[in-house]
Structures are given as C-alpha cells and as structure tokens.
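>> received
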Amino acid sequence: MGEIGIGVFGTGWVAGEHIKSFQKVEGVRVLGLGSRTVEGARAKAAEVGATDAKIFATYEEMLADPSIHAISLCSPPHLHPEQTVLAAEAGKHILIEKAVANDAASLSKMVKAVEKAGVKTVVSFVLRWNPEFQLIKQLLADDTVGNIFYAEVDYWHNIGPQYGQYRWNVKKDIAGSSWLSAGCHAVDAMRWFVGSEIAEVTAYSNKINQEYEYDTNAIAAVKFESGAIGKLSVSFDVKAPYAFNVDLLGDKGTIRDNHVYSKAKFPGQTDWSTIPTIRPDSGDVSHHPFDGQISHFIDCIRTGVESHVNLADAAKTHAVCYALETSATEGRQVKLSEIVY
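>> returned
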C-alpha cells in the first residue's frame, strides 16, 4: 500500500513517544491529532514538530477522515473500549495503549468488533521490544535453560504525584486496578516467557497511599496449564528505584534478569554469566522501545500478518488481571475459566 496516514487520539505523555516513532517510519505520516481539548492537541503537535497534522475537534471527525488509515489510542484506559469499537467499525487499524479495558464485558465488545472488521491491532505491551526481553526470548528459544517450571515477575514503580497520570491513575473507574494500570506488564511478560497460559490464581493486596481508590500493592501465586507455577507482584508504594524483576527456573538452568546459569550451554560454569544489555529499569516513557513496537504495527498493516501482541493475545493478559483482582477482593482462588469475554 502507499503512504499510511496515522491519527493519534489522546495527547498526554505517551502520545509524544508514539508520534516520534511514527515520524521515523518511511511511508508513514501523522496526519491528525485529537484530544480532550483542541488546545491540548495543538500543544502536542507543536511539541513534537507535527505542525502539518490536522487538529480534530472530535474523535468521530478523525475516524471519518479517509486519509487516516490507522489510529493510535493514547487516551485514558476507560475510554479505550468504545474508541476501539468505533475505530474498528470505521475500518481503521488500531494501536491501543494499555489497559485496553477495565472489565471483561467491555473487552468482549472490543474483541468482537475487531474480529468482525478484520483490522490489525497491536496492544502497547511495549516491553516486548526491550533488549533484555529480546535477550531472554532468545535464550529460551536456544533451549539455554530448558522447560520452565517456576517463574517470578515483579513490577515495582512508585507512581505518585510526580507523574502526570497520577491525577487519573488514582481513580478506580479510570485506571481499574494496580494490575491493569501497570502490573499488566508483569503479567504479559510472564505469559510471553513461560509460553503457557495461566490457569488459576490466588492473590492478596493492600495499599499505603490512601489517595488511590484501589489497592496499590499486590502479590499472587499462579499455576499454568503446563503445570509450571509462579509468583507475580506489583507495587506502586515501593520506596526504591523502578524495578522489573524476571526470574525463570528451567530444568536445564536459570535466568535472573540479564544473568544466566546453564551448565548445559556453558560447561564448567561456576557462577552467573552477566550479559550486558538495556534493562527495563525506568518508568520514563522515553526509555521504552516504541520504535520497535510501532515499526511492527506498520509491518502488520502492510503485510496483513497478525501481531504476536494483537488484541486477541492481550485479552488473555487482561483476563489474568481481572482474575487477580477478583481473587484479592473476594479472598479466594480464581480459575481463568471463570473470566468470560
């Protein structure tokens, strides 16, 4: 196909990174920006040098423009379900920031609309393009540690007033839960690395920051369909630098972040081998690998190939998040078969 026109709706912090990455892809132009206010969209256009982009007063006007082939949804999470359905019905391909939906019923409507329209989707689990994540996937593909029988993934990030999203992130009807707001990255990483779906969860939660309308710290034991077990955790109250911890125990070796121990691959190894790489060690969106994700999104549009992190796949991560919140709230084990979408 020829030039791909992009419309970006929602012009907060992350939108700037989306726009910058789109601007680097040959044959792609950011043709339109829209937001809660026209002034906000104009300010973002000036900030990122997208001065030739049209400023849309409403989302519906953006969808009606035939020159726009794909939408980048950077609006707050509670708006994503309706906006995704409308974009799919308009025949637009969609890049959706997470969380995509705060409940299973809304998620179901999105999935059905996308399937019916046949548009391409990518959900912004951007850490799949982080170099450490890519390294871990390569080690797993090379059978460096064998079959995983135990996994731990932690997302620890003090999300307080110093972040622009804090004003809405504290609200349950917008952000949903600590798992949906950010802990979903840990859930997605665990699913991606273990290569099996989570079958059941048992979770507990609490909070320190009382401004949040939901618990901001949570831990969960999980069991996979493969028989593997694991531990997930998320903390917004942590008093420490951002940390994304990954531990994968296999029957031939072990991975701890960018450290690997595997006598099967490295005979005579006596201690951890450390592989220098770029780690997921910052909550700053400018640190996230949007270039890789957005190039992938455009490739999916051009080739017609479904993404490994399309809405159908991301729905499985979100279903785990719903199960985790239900488990902590109701004080019981929850099977993923209970989450219907």
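>> The first strand starts at residue 4 and ends at 9.
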